[in-house]
Design a protein that fits this description.
Its main location: membrane. This protein has 448 residues and is of the alpha/beta class. It has 12 helices and 13 strands. Helix 2 packs antiparallel against helix 3 and helix 9 runs parallel beside helix 10. The protein is elongated, with a radius of gyration of 32 Å.
Length: 448
Amino acid sequence: MVKVKFEYKILISYLLIGGLWISFSDQLAKKIISDPNYLTEIQTYKGWFYVLVTGILFYFLLKKHLIKIRNAEKKARESDQLKTAFLQNISHEIRTPMNGIVGFAGLLKENDLTKDQKEMYLDIITKSSDQLLNVVNDVLDVSLIDSGNVIINKTQFNLNEFLEQIYSVHSTILRKNISLRLNNTLYSSDHIVFSDSVKLGQILDNLISNAIKYTPKGEVELGCETKENKLLFSVKDSGIGIAPEYHEKIFDRFHRAEIETTKTIGGAGLGLAICRGNVNLLGGDIWVESNLGIGSKFYFTIPGDFVVQKPTVEEKADSKSVLRPGCVLVAEDEEYNFLYISRILNDAGIDFLRAKNGQEAVDICRKNANLGLILMDIKMPVLNGYEAVKIIREFRNEIPIIAQTAFAIGNEKKKALDVGCNDYIAKPFKREELLNKIRENTKAITDL
C-alpha cells in the first residue's frame, strides 16, 4: 500500500473540502434565496466561514504534525549526543588496552630485561587483552540483542552450585576495601533449574562487576530467593548510587548515569543494556532502586523452572566409564592458531595430528582409527568445518567433535551441534577453557 505524504494529504483535503463546500452550499443558497444582492452577501460570509473553519482545522493538523517532527528532532539530537559520547568512550576503552598490549609487547623485545620485568609485562599484556576482549564482546552482544539473533539454550543445572561459582570467581578479584557476600535463601542443595546458565551468568557478572566498580569501599551482596513461582536475584552495593531520573535510562544502550564518570570509571556503558536484553529473553524483568550517595539495589526475575529429578551418581559414573586413550585431530588452517593449540596439547601430554583444511580432516579421520577427539575449525579452505563434520558423521558417529570458531555470534553454537558436533568453543579461548572442553568430552583423553 502506497503511503501518501503529509503535504499531499493537506492539499487534497483542502481542494476536496473546498470543492464540496462551494458546490453544495451554492446550490442550497440558490434554492433558498432569490434576491441576487442578498445571495452575494451570503456567499461572502460563506467564504469567510470556510476560510475560518479550514484555518482552525489545518492549524491543529499542522500543530500535531510539527510536534511529532520536533519530538523526533529532539530524540535525534539526544541520540547523536549519546552516540558521540559512546564512540568517544568506546574509543578510549579500546585504545587503552591496545596501548598496553602494543607498548609492553615492544618492551619485551629489549635484551636487558629481568625475569620479574618480563613476567610483569606479560601480565599487563594478558590483562589488557582480557579488557579489550570484554569490550568487543559487549559491543557484539548488544548488536545481537538489538537484531534479535540471540538464541536461548536452556539446560538443567544446580543453581546453588552455580551461585557459589559466581561468588568464588568475583571474590578472588576484589579490591582491598570491598567485600562480597552471598545471601542465598535456597537452602536445599539440589535446586536443579531449567534455564540458560550462560545468559544468567552474564547478567550476574555484569551486575556484580558494576557494583564493585562503582563502590569505592563497602560491601556488595549477591542474593537469590523464590518469589511467586519466580527466581528473584539481587545485587546490592554501598557505592555512589544513581539519581532517580536515570533509573530507566541506564538500561538503554549508549546511556550512562553520568557520562562524566567515563573520565574516572572505565567501561563502555553497555553492561546494563545487555543485562536487560538477556533478562527479557529469559522471560523476566529487571529494575533498580537507588539514590545518590546511598548505593544501588538491582533486582531481576526469571521463571522458576525447577526440575524435580537431578542426575544420579550412577549416571555420572557411567559418563566417566567410557574413557579410552586416543589422539586429537586439530583441524586448523591458521598457523598462529595451530601453534597456540599445539603448545597447549604438548604441555598437557596429548598426542595430536593436524589438518589444514576440511578435506584433510576427513581423509585423516578415515585413515586413523586411533583418533579419539577432533578439534574442528569452522572456517577452512577446500571444505569448511560444517561440511567436514557431516561427512565424518557418515562413517564415524562415535568420535567426539568440538567446533572451535571465531564466529561467536548468533546461533553458531546451535548450528554446530545440529550438524553433528558434540560441543563448541569460541575463539579466543584460554588454555584451561580448551582443556576443560576436552575433559568434558573425554572419550579421547584419560588423564589431563
